[in-house]
Amino acid sequence: MTGLGRVALGLASGMWLVLGRADATDYRSGGEDAADLASEATVSVGGLGGAPSVPEPAGTAVAEVPPAPVLDLRTEQWTIPSQVVAAVRAVRERPLGERVAVASQSFLGLPYVLDAAGEGTVEDPDPVGRYDAFDCLTFVEETLAIAMAGDPLDAPMLRNAFRYDGPASYSHRRHFMEAEWIPDAVRNGLVTDITARLGPARTLTKTVTADTWKSWRRRSLFSLPAEALPVGSWSLNYLDLAEAELAAPRFPPGAIVLTLRQDRPHVPVVITHVSLVIPGRDGLLMRHATKMGSRKVRDDRLSWYVTHIRDYVNWRALGIAVLLPREQGPRRSALSITQLPPTFPPAEGPLPEFAAGALHPAASAPAGGEPG
Q1: I need a labelling partner for 212 at 20 to 30 A (CA). Which of 59, 91, 105, 372 fits?
Q2: Domain presence at residue 66
């Protein structure tokens, strides 16, 4: 049975919503930039976050964040907030980008929490579903599930389809974006890689061996046996930093934006942040749960972010990849890949080089830190 079939069967027999300790402090899964821990990052459910907490530099183009409705966390911590359900139902016939914006509007200002989700078990005692706090991947998963489901109350089924390859258990969680989350989401028809439809793309092939895991200093953060750690080679299309800046205005609302770092042979991951594109009054916005600034869900101008990441110092940014969520059920034909431009010719020549801090001198990171 496919992962989606197992998820649907599990939901039919009883929704996999496991409650656990909401205040559990769990650093098993790392964060977007771990310069403050080990100068490495881990992209995984419940641990893929924003950049380190640094003051927002003067002059950066941070979009205004409208006040979010106050959630009664005593009653709505573990269930989709009622105002979200009502708001999404009201726009159920609107394009995906608008539904994504509406679904996540009430989450603006909620705190970023490292490793926000778990399975309510000893491996990770955090709950499977929560709407009071997010890391960057749980924010994307929960928002897309609410926006894409036929009815927002069915969102847990779709969220689990993204997150697990079976029951909602630690061993079935897709912990690693490159090796598990992305290829399975593409294979299961949940997303399409549109990076090469947005600009001249390059391809990064990441190879991970058993020795990679043994040498990785953050291996102990994962309660997985050695045989459960993925090994092999995975290829990712990406736009380099120069092409990403040119292509940003073409990113479709509702798209998933992935931040890639330069490949390090001893580190099994390269993707360190994930966010969503939403329409804004004055251009496209990137909505994400991040450790930047005051550590919360916030909006930033997409055009600002794709140049801002050039300032990363401890682990230099490589580029941006873009995935387009695929409508499910009756909406399946609402947004077709054929509505996007034809595939661009691949990028050629050496990667562009940028001096860290050249674009945003005020954002240059202090020793041991990094702008995010």
Answers
A1: 372
A2: yes
Query: In angstroms, what CA-CA distances link 154 with 89, 239, 298?
Result: 12, 34, 25
- Taken as a whole, the chain contains a residue count of 372
Report yes or no on 372 lying in a domain.
Answer: no
CB 308 within 8 A of CB 60: yes
Biggest CA–CA distance in the chain, Å, is: 56
CATH number at residue 99: 2.30.260.10
Q: Which two tokens stand for residue 218?
A: 């953050």
Q: What residues contact 306, with CB distance under 8 A and at least 6 apart?
A: 241, 244, 245, 248, 320
Q: For residue 369, is it within any domain?
A: no
This prediction has a pTM of: 0.78
Domain presence at residue 337:
yes
The CA distance from 99 to 77, in Å, is: 21
The per-residue pLDDT string of the chain (372 residues; one tens digit each, 9 = 90 and over) reads 444 443 333 333 333 232 222 222 222 333 444 332 333 334 444 443 333 333 333 444 444 444 444 444 333 346 899 999 999 999 999 999 999 999 999 999 999 998 899 998 999 988 899 999 999 999 999 999 999 999 999 999 999 999 999 999 999 999 999 999 999 999 999 999 999 999 999 999 999 999 999 999 999 999 999 999 999 999 999 999 999 999 999 999 999 999 999 999 999 999 999 999 999 998 999 999 999 899 999 999 999 999 999 999 899 999 999 999 999 876 654 555 557 778 888 998 888 887 655 544 433 333 333 334
CB 107 within 8 A of CB 150: no
Angle made by CA atoms 265, 269, 273, in degrees to the nearest 5: 140
Structure tokens at 262: 């330069």
